[in-house]
Amino acid sequence: MGTASRSTPSPRRASSQPCFRCCSRGTPSPDRHREGKRTMVVHTPHGRVQGLEHRGYREFLGIPYAAAPYPRHAFDPPRPLAPWSGVFEATAPGATAAHPPVARELFPDPVIEGPNPLNLNVYAPSNADGHSPVLVWLHGGGFFSGGNASPWYTGESFARNGIVVVVPNYRLAAEGFMLLDDGIANRALLDIILALEWVRDDIEAFGGDPGNVTVAGQSAGATATLALSGCPGARGLFHRLAAMSAGTPLLSSLDRTRMLSEEFAARLGTRRTVAALTGTSVHKRLELETAWLPKEVQAPPADVDDRARGVRRNSLRWQPTLDGTVVTASPSDALTAGSLDALLIGTTVEEWNFMLGQTAPAPSLDACLQGFANLGLTGQDLTDYLRAMATDNPGHALAQALTDRTFRMPARELADGAAKAGIPTYTYQFAWPAPVFGAAHCADLPFVFDHLDAPGVAGLLGPGAPAQLATALHGALVRFVREGSPGWSPYDTEARAVRVFDVEVREVVDAVGLLPDRLRAACGSNGRARGALCDTPPPPRSLSVRGSGGSSRRERVP
User: Fold this and answer.
1) What's the pLDDT score for residue 357?
2) Residue 544: which domain range?
3) Which of 6, 321, 524, 558 is the most buried (most CB within 10 A)?
């Protein structure tokens, strides 16, 4: 971690005026209000924090967990925060990490300027007593957008179910991941680790148990969640992981990150040093991040992961790096060590529907055929694949192939490794076919947070999203955070139990688990499709499907 001197929060957010004193659990103040809502104060090791009292839960917004990185420390490791005097007002969202506005129509993603985006939100049960389990949620956004100010990440539903929720910001894009000549990569992961240290030191003041911490995330947040398993600095700071829709590759190589960093610095017209980059304007860096198309996406890709990643312009550029310093092991190797209390992992069944659906114009037939070829599907393999999918829409078929290759199969491989290492592992698939994009990437988020009425949700899901499905998926994560089990059978490599969240929530026990039938059909006579798309298919067998009501039926696996 950083060794720079400690810093106090920005005066804009702190007050030196005397405030109603209360116990460390946050007794509500009877005579203070904020926009008609009751306020209350908690005493933390860093100082007093004022939040809002709602019916059944308490909300604290924008609490700093590190010293402000702007304007002089945007490319430095995070610096510890000194205790403050007075009362910190945590009644409005804090600053967000610098990023361009992306897809605001569907994903509300406020950009809030300020010197310290390294802040976090806390949602706590009103009756939390220091023993409530803690959920730390890492937001998605491709590591170039997103933040805790989005209304999609408010944690009141979890808090009303007895869980203390912490939603930190972390630095994005070049500020978070660029490799410097005189610095390090993975500053964003160091941000997250420092936020976890804040949880260890301060969360008891909000009623949370620092000995019962689950880290969860979706998309890029899930990738960061899994990366933490290979970070020595994060050991002992969390106990369970929940990874939702983590794409592949999960980590960048040091050589690739260096190549991207050199190209970014050259396009920015500066040297790859802390001082030189700090001297550039945030506005100029954001302009480049928005317009930049890395050479690796333009050039013929070297392997199937690069091919899958290069299908669309806005593929991941920056991501965690296996640098040997901050990250010393891949998630698969780290999970094999078996040092985790429990793992929950899964995907939606049509992740790429949204991403290809956002492409204009829609992929042509030739483009789709080239996409299949890039994934190793040609000739009879492609014919078998399309026949197994039962679709005459090549764009949809390509989206499914990409979903299988870049999301579902990596999830299965990680689940296999964790289960073999003796980690209690639970897998799921989100399969509800929303009328707009189907069971696409991010379609599960409003169900996870039980926020079907949040801004933008109707644009992604359409009208009439089933409330009972939100109850089921949200409840599964609540139970996992509380007990270490989401409420269905553990996954193992003999009988792979997968919970399917659809109109009917059911458990599928299938020896091939997350590996889709259509990928098995694409396997050649040697059991593997070109491009290493799938493992050797097992012989035909039965699978058992258990409905949420307890009924069961037997189905034949092709």
Assistant:
1) 63
2) 341-557
3) 321
Catalytic residue list: 219, 351, 441
Examine the domain organization and report whether 492 and 433 are in the same domain: yes
Domain end point (choices 260, 289, 309): 309
Count up the domains in the chain and report the number.
Answer: 2
With H, G, I as helix, E, B as strand and everything else as coil, classify residue 229: helix
**Per-10-residue mean pLDDT, the chain, length 558:** 46 38 34 63 98 97 98 96 97 93 69 96 95 98 93 97 99 96 93 99 98 98 98 98 91 94 95 95 90 52 41 65 97 91 96 67 68 73 71 75 84 93 96 92 96 92 94 98 97 90 89 47 34 28 34 30
The CATH number for 62's domain is 3.40.50.1820
Question: For residues 142 and 148, is the Cβ–Cβ distance under 8 A?
Answer: no
- By the 8 A CB rule, do 443 and 432 touch? yes
**CA of residue 408 relative to chain centroid, distance:** 15
Contact 172, 204 (CB under 8 A): no
In this structure, is residue 185 part of a structural domain?
Answer: yes
Phi, psi dihedral angles at 203 (to 5 degrees): -70, -25
Alpha-carbon dihedral sign for residues 287, 289, 295, 299: negative
439 within domain boundaries: yes
SS3 readout for 74-110? CCCCCCCECCCCCEEECCCCCCCCCCCCCCCCCCCCC
* In a shared domain, residues 216 and 363: no
User: Are 283 and 158 within one domain?
Assistant: yes
293 to each of 114, 406, 484, how far by Cα in Å?
Answer: 28, 20, 42
User: Same domain, yes or no, for 93 and 37?
Assistant: yes
Q: In whole angstroms, how far apart are CA 4 and each of 46, 50, 77, 191, 528?
A: 17, 28, 9, 14, 52
Q: Report the C-alpha gap between 80 and 103 in whole angstroms.
A: 33
Residues 422 and 503 in one domain: yes
CA-CA distance, 195 to 213, in Å (whole number)?
12
**Helices in 100-241 by DSSP H: which ranges?**
156-160, 173-177, 187-202, 220-227
